[in-house]
Amino acid sequence: RKLFFDTHALVCLLEENGFTTQQSEVIVSALVKIMNTNLDMIYKDMVTKVQQEIALQQVMSDIGGVKKDMIILEKSEFSALRSENEKIKLELQQIKKQVMDEITKVRADNKLHLNLEKSRVKELVSFAAVQIVSFYCFVVQHAQQDRALTQTDRKIDTEVADLKTMLESHKLDNIKYLAGSIFTCLTVALGFYRLWI
């Protein structure tokens, strides 16, 4: 084994720093033992080139065997998978056809329901339009009747006012005639009274 440092130089360095020659050699020999022990531990985990080549050949032969097995399995499994795949494709086509039939049925039902609802809504709209028109006619008639009533009320009010003014004028005329008649009667009575006295 080769050491990658100078042991004599290490001994000299230790002696320069106050160690004796014997102490320096003991320290260096202990370091050499420690390093050798460490190298032994490292070498136990390592392999030689020959061992590595043998292990590589074994791995390559195992890989070759696995490849052959894979090819055989692939051929047999691939044909089985193909047949399974074909079966699944046929089943999927049948399911797709069933689904499409169901979809067309549902669409036809929905169209029928929509058409029925449309016709029902149209009938309701036409009925509502007739109701609205009749209500509008009723409102118009009611408005015309209200106008006629208001005109009649106005006419009645004007006639009543005219009658009141006529009554007032007749009352005044009657009061005038009455007052005139009373004065005439008084003057005649006074005239007779003077004649008797």
From TrEMBL:
The keyword Chloroplast is annotated on this UniProt entry: no
Species per Swiss-Prot/TrEMBL record: Lophotis ruficrista
Pfam families hit by this protein: CCDC90-like (PF07798)
Localization per record: Mitochondrion membrane
GO cellular component, one term: mitochondrial inner membrane
Source organism phylogeny: Eukaryota, Metazoa, Chordata, Craniata, Vertebrata
Mitochondrion listed as a keyword: yes
Protein name: MCUR1 regulator
Main location: mitochondrion
GO biological process, one term: calcium import into the mitochondrion
Record family assignment: Belongs to the CCDC90 family.
Keywords: Coiled coil, Membrane, Mitochondrion, Transmembrane, Transmembrane helix
Gene: Mcur1
Transmembrane segments: 175-196
